[in-house]
Amino acid sequence: MAAVLRQDVTLGSEVAAWLWHPEGATGAVVLGHGLSAVRDQRIDAYAERFAQAGLAALLFDYRHFGASSGQPRQLLDIKRQLEDWRTAVAYARGLDGIERVGLFGSSFGGGHATEIAASDPNIGAVVLQCAMVDGLQAAMKLPPKSTAKLAKVALQDELGSRLGRKPKYVPAVGRPGELAMMTTEDAVPGFDSLTPEGSTWVNAVAARLGLWIGTYRPAKHAASITCPILVALCEQDTLVSNEALEKVAEAAPQGELVRYPIGHFEIYNGEWFERAVTRQAEFLARHLTGATPSP
């Protein structure tokens, strides 16, 4: 199928999004990225492939990040990001011809997709990719010294925000031993592999997130997800809890688990991207339109 043209749209008054809307599409997919990540960091490649499969695809930047507005910048507020997902789902449902809407959440966005699907029985299908569905287990992967340093700055940022002060920022990704939200061996090269020249991505996040990430555990609601859900697990992932992902696939009544022998970032490019996106496009097209996409 020929490439589908991408449109710039605004959801509400603050959320910037890209829309691919093939002629005659009856199913749509809402896509959301991971912690600090923005729409030009390889997640747009998934949207393009879903559009080629005949699905409308709506990919957005969270408020405070990328092309979306919102002050202060680089603020990751879990409640607001969930609101952005709901805004995007409502927009997708209002598109001409759309009868069913599904979700594609990658990394931290996969946790959000889990949460939305558990609370919205009208979601038609979900794909979770290397998803962060248990913040406590993910936080426990950090070395204790790094956790202590991050907690100190996070507390300072949280208290400062209540006094009207500007955020204290930490890098979203750093090398092992550095103060950052993600410090695995593959974090820096992984983000480098996702980020094109001229990207709107900024390697910073308000530190207060460090206080709350451990309390965010969407996997606990997996049994409430009634629609088909495809869980893509990267077996060498050092950022998220694969045990928690396995439990999501087991607890969801229509859960399906697929394993890839790779790390967290390898699924976005090359051979493993091709393998993953082909299966995901088939899954979404089948459940959102009843069709099987052409090779």
Automatic annotation (TrEMBL):
Entry keyword Ion transport: no
Gene3D superfamilies with a match to the protein in the record: alpha/beta hydrolase
Family statement: Belongs to the AB hydrolase superfamily.
Name under which the protein is recorded: Alpha/beta hydrolase
Pfam families: Hydrolase_4
Domain Serine aminopeptidase S33: 26-261
Source organism of this protein record: Solirubrobacter deserti
Listed InterPro entries: AB_hydrolase_fold (IPR029058), FrsA_esterase (IPR050261), Hydrolase_4 (IPR022742)
Keyword entries, A-Z: Hydrolase
PANTHER family referenced in this protein's UniProt entry, alphabetically: DIENELACTONE HYDROLASE DOMAIN-CONTAINING PROTEIN-RELATED (PTHR22946), POLYKETIDE TRANSFERASE AF380 (PTHR22946:SF9)
Gene Ontology MF term list: hydrolase activity
